[in-house]
Amino acid sequence: MPNLLLETKNLKKYYGKQLVVNGVSLGIPKGSIYGLLGPNGAGKSTTLKMITGLLQPSSGEIVVFGEPWQRKHLGRMGALIESPALYGNLTAAENLLVHTKLMGLPNQRICEVLETVDLKAAGKKLVSQFSMGMKQRLGIAIALLGHPELLILDEPANGLDPIGIQELRELIRSFPKKGITVILSSHLLPEVSQLVDHVGIISDGELKYQGEISHKEDLEKLFMKVVKGD
What we know:
There is one protein chain. The strands form 2 sheets. A 6-stranded mixed beta sheet has the order 7-8-9-4-10-11, with helices on both faces. The chain starts with a strand and ends with a helix. The protein is built from 7 helices and 11 strands. Strand 10 (198-203) and strand 11 form a beta hairpin. The protein is an alpha/beta fold. It holds the Pfam family ABC_tran.
């Protein structure tokens, strides 16, 4: 059994009477890049929002860092869920300064995370002038400020051009070497197949498949087989 950084046990979420996440039990190995896959509306984002405390589970359990989930654990996590909330009239460094003040972190972290996401050269350029890829990387920089052990990225390649996707891929690949475990949600299967070493496939709110995967495996074929129930 691998050393798990995060487990969800029979996690459920209702919106009213509608069951959108149904008994999902994930196992995220420490040091992995874990791909959480599924069609639109399958329950991926809802699951990630429960892990990050944005939503309360209807039932089930989340165990992280070897303990039942508590709000204090958020200090050891970083997340980019949906589009990053950025101030367009500020520079990248000024956006990060807002967050270091809120989090009580030293300002030296700003230079460190800007270097990590390759935005040091952005200088005095306002975020409103950034490309979509630069905005995504700045969102990841914000998520990295607190030295997270677990980084959760929900559809980080949305709206990116091929160059932006390649830059993002190289960035995400670098995280496990820095002691960061990554959960990556995406519907871009060819891209995900080059990144992840474990996958979970959710369909209709249920976890239909979970396991280790090699980069040579045909992830699209596996995905279609699982989702269509072949």
